[in-house]
């Protein structure tokens, strides 16, 4: 794992949370993006070498909608940048970790992504991401 690429935070309403995080981080949101495949609307902030990703549900059946219903707003996942997502997926799978998807998906902010199931990672939803070059 190269570094923590971003932290994902589940929010109910980007219109409320974007200005809130602009105040907290003292920087402006540099990008909003709809990830239709995941049913989420995202907003990104730079914090030094890492980022904060706000996630708002785009439809009532999305994973984020279910998460908000169960746990409320808060830290949703931690994303690590990797050099070769296929290699990392193979490595982690061989160690017994459960991958939520068997193939990398295209995520927000020009990334290939993959999630590890929290039941095998101490309850932490971990995202692997690799920049699409
Ligand atoms: Zn993420």
Q: What structural class do the secondary elements suggest?
A: alpha+beta
Mean pLDDT: 95
* Strand content bin: 35-45%
Low-pLDDT regions: none
How would you describe this structure to a colleague?
This protein has about 130 residues and is an alpha+beta fold. Helix content is about 25%, strand content about 40%. The chain has 3 helices and 8 strands; from the N terminus they run βαβββαβαβββ. It has helices at about 15-25, 65-70, 85-95, and strands at about 5-10, 30-35, 40-45, 50-55, 75-80, 105, 110-115, 125-130. It has an 8-stranded mixed beta sheet with strand order 2-3-4-1-5-8-7-6. The structure holds zinc ion.
Give the key terms:
single chain; 133 residues; alpha+beta; eight-stranded mixed sheet; binds zinc ion
Question: In a nutshell, what does this entry contain?
Answer:
With 133 residues, this protein is α+β, with helices and mostly antiparallel strands.
Write the layout of secondary structure elements.
Elements: E1 3-11, H1 14-25, E2 31-35, E3 40-47, E4 50-57, H2 63-71, E5 74-81, H3 85-94, E6 105-107, E7 111-116, E8 126-131
The protein binds zinc ion.
């Amino acid at each position: 794992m190269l570094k923590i690429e971003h932290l994902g935070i589940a929010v109910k309403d980007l219109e409320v949370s974007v200005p809130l995080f602009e105040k907290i981080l003292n920087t402006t949101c540099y990008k909003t993006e709809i990830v239709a495949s995941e049913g989420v609307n995202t907003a990104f902030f730079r914090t030094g070498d890492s980022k904060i990703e706000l996630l708002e549900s785009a439809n009532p059946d999305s994973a984020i909608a279910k998460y908000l219903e169960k746990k409320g707003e808060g830290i949703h996942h931690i994303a690590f940048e990797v050099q070769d997502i296929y290699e990392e997926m193979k490595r982690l799978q061989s160690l017994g970790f459960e991958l939520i998807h068997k193939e990398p998906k295209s995520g927000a902010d020009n990334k290939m992504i993959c999630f590890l199931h929290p039941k095998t990672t101490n309850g932490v939803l971990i995202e692997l991401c690799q920049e699409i070059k």
